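Researcher: Hi, I'm a grad student and pretty new to this. My advisor asked me to get structures for two proteins we've been looking at. I'm not sure of the right format, so I'll just paste the first sequence and hope you can take it from there.
Model: That works fine. Here's the first sequence with its structure tokens right after it:
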Amino acid sequence: MPFQKTDYLGIYKPEQIKTLQTAYNEVCEILGYCPTTDENKDQLARTVIRIYESGIKDPKEIAGLIARIENLRS
């Protein structure tokens, strides 16, 4: 999983990491991506972080935005 606590602890609080991971898992489910093996998992994780840092904190909203963006690219 992209959001291992040891990688992000100190940067984000545990509850923030949980939110990021939840958003990531949600968008993977929506798009049909495997959260552990998809070739774009790191890019997807960075997108989750960028949206989170822009002020959107709801995991479902983050996932929905990313899914819409990905669907527009298709």
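Researcher: Oh nice, that was easy. Here's the second one.
Model: And its structure:
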Amino acid sequence: MPQIFVSYRSDDEPTAAVLVHRELGAHFGAEAVFLDGAAIPPGTDYTRALLEGVRTAKVLLVVIGPRWLEARAPGGGRALDQPGDWVRAEIAEAFRCGLTVIPLLVGAAARLGSAPLPADVAALARCQDLRLRPEDAEYDLRRLVAELEALGLRAAPAAGPERNGQVSMRATATGHSRVYQAGGNQVINE
């Protein structure tokens, strides 16, 4: 179940969204981070999958690049102003569900501040943002992870070595005592 939903415009900063997905997935676990192309299997009703992904998350990250606000809809006009715009629908659903919404400004993207936003997503302009700068991406991603952990999200447990169902055992005898070692990390003294 995803804890983090990554929302982005495919004609704005898709590479940044993929980078964020990869880095957060490595830290929190792949299942904890929702990115449409990676989380929705072929043949699935994406409309239901997107909204369900938002509803089950705790945090919505909105990846905002320099073209995000003025991206155009196929029929003309600003995409964000269209009721059927999926980025708008994801953000509106996140606010309806009470998620923490974090704008992630990429590169030189400006803060939304007083930008004209539709009423159902206007609160986005008041959300404290974070920045992802190409020249400081490693630092900015570490800060993003720290901020998400401060919100209560936890790192995935580190994977242990694979055992393939095999157990090894070693015995050592000296004098009247014997030491058995099994599984590589358990010691029994006798």
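Researcher: Is there anything I should tell my advisor about the second?
Model: You could mention this: The chain has two domains: 4-150, 163-190.
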